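Quick one, tokens below. Sequence please?
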């Protein structure tokens, strides 16, 4: 299941984080990072998915 979440995180990082942790601080941080730059959003999303 993590493989699917990682693929979703590469395409749309906030959705990958949402599928892992729901709406919470990590989700909002990821939205902010994705708005500031797509690559930081991807890195954060993959980090959140692999951490849990």
């Amino acid at each position: 299941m993590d493989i699917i979440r990682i693929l979703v995180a590469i395409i749309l990082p906030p959705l990958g984080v949402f599928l892992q942790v729901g709406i919470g601080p990590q989700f909002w941080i990821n939205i902010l990072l994705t708005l500031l730059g797509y690559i930081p959003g991807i890195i954060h999303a993959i980090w959140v998915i692999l951490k849990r």
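The chain has a mean pLDDT of 94. The chain has one domain: 2-51.
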